Amino acid sequence: MSLQTLGVIAVYINNNKIEELDFFRKLSVYSGKEGLQIALFTPQDVDDHKSEIRALFYDKTLKKWVRKRTPIPTLIYDRCRYHGKATYQMLSKFRRTHPNLNYIAKPLANKWSIHNVLSGHARIASSIPETHPYSSALLEKMLKKYRSIYLKPRNGTGGRGIIRVSYLEDGTYQIQGRYKNRQIFNAERVQLKQLPSKLRKHYVNDQYIMQQGIASLLVNGRVCDFRLLIQKNGEGKWDVTGCAGRIGPTRSITSNLHGGGKAITIGSLLQQKFTKSQMSTIKENMYDLSTIIANALEDHYGSLCELGIDLAVDPHGDVWLLEVNPKPSREVFKRIGEQNTYLTAITRPLEYASWLLKKEQER
Ligand SMILES: Nc1ncnc2c1ncn2[C@@H]1O[C@H](COP(=O)(O)OP(=O)(O)O)[C@@H](O)[C@H]1O
Ligand SMILES: [Mg+2]
């Protein structure tokens, strides 16, 4: 049986290392079952004159990556994350030069644009915390309405540059958060009047959004939220692969795993606050909301294959959308020991790609 090729485009990070190489190895190992082979390449490996790439293929017998020239595959799984302007420009150029390839994953826009798309949908809007572009005057108004406000860079990821302003009982405000390099900075207590200048010192500008903080604190004061993975399955339909809880480290206002967050099963996290029947309603709401979000984003941005959705649950058990990630990692399921979910998270893009290729051939 001849294998069809799924191209995986990725980027080099430091020391010429390809990001997520271990994931790509696993994709390659499981691809044969779906009648596929993985051709891994970066924008630097493209030879436009010959419409060829110098791709890496994983050799299961030799247990190593082998480089071979191959035509540019027609189906592409884009796993490039933002690592600075240079790689971003190379990737954009590749997309511009090859607009007719079938990209199963797409870079979505920034947090504010995604917010605007989703807030136009009645069933989603009520689950989105109030969000605006940052302005110091509006921040003051929002702080009258909510106890805490999250400030996030529009293009940020992994908890970088996120700041929380909270109202304290004595009438002052606390600023907490992380620098752009993700390090936690020391909390500061300031007067309302001092807020704009203090925030400017933390590089908060019009490239930030501000968002109603969702009170999703654990008893011991740590922040927690949930990461849900929704993927297209082998029938081309959206299906929730799994959902896990994340608990931030002490002093942290974010729960991201790369910022020291701990992964925990959804059940263990929810049972700390909710009854069994509340838990199943919350889970159902999470799954429903995520499916509606996936369809709404697809209507706007064109077809997608997977999304990582950050959700918070407030003390009433209401589910809130914090963020949508178009290039989600699947490590959280490995960390909580859900091996089957982890495996499904790896194999679903292969099943979906194989379904797409079959559909194309039938045409
Ligand atoms: N509005 C909010 N209310 C409560 N917690 C939030 C809010 N926004 C973000 N967080 C916390 O900060 C983390 C990072 O925020 P997120 O919007 O997902 O940005 P990033 O792209 O950096 O992951 C979330 O996982 C959550 O722990
Ligand atoms: Mg996030």
TrEMBL record:
Pfam families: ATPgrasp_YheCD (PF14398). It comes from the Bacteria. This is YheC/YheD family protein.
